[in-house]
């Protein structure tokens, strides 16, 4: 997938160096699709070998390597965008993994985790809202970025609301959750 990120960013913003690609990834997709920086240095030369990009090295100065989209690269990007089938989303959330085993730990640990997660998701939501407010209407990618950020905002709202529910359940005397497995072990 990182190859399509490289093709898409160069198609949207014009020729770029791997360093510039890294900066564009960080400002756009990194919160939901992180790519190791090393990958953004490996992909462009590989894509150039495949004929999807061309490489131009500066004559003087730092001799930076700029990568340009070729017609074959544009075609590959369009074909990828036109394909409606995508693999199922991969979701590896360490907090969700802890939640799966939370009944084996101290209920206070779960409450602290829930409060921390709610705060972190609210912070991400605010970041997305800020980025959406800063979009430049003259930028050709504004509509796509606005949609992506709106999706991110809804996603973070849902996560924050879920974790807030978990955090407040510990404070609610009419807690609808069952006793934890740890509580059951201690009573046997």
List keywords for this structure.
elongated, two-stranded antiparallel ribbon, Arc Repressor Mutant, subunit A, 8 helices, mainly alpha, single chain, disordered C terminus, 188 residues
Q: Explain this structure to me?
A:
With 188 residues, this protein is mainly alpha-helical. The protein has two domains: 2-82, Winged helix-like DNA-binding domain superfamily/Winged helix DNA-binding domain (Arc Repressor Mutant, subunit A, Orthogonal Bundle), CATH 1.10.10; 94-187. Helices cover 62% and strands 5% of the residues. It has helices spanning 2-13, 18-27, 37-49, 71-82, 94-100, 107-133, 142-169, 181-187; strands at residues 53-57, 65-69. A hairpin with a 7-residue loop joins strand 1 (53-57) and strand 2 (65-69). Helix 1 (2-13) crosses helix 4, helix 2 packs across helix 3 (37-49) and helix 6 packs antiparallel against helix 7 (142-169). The chain is elongated. The model is unreliable at 175-188 (pLDDT under 50).
Structure at a glance:
The protein has 188 residues and is mainly α.
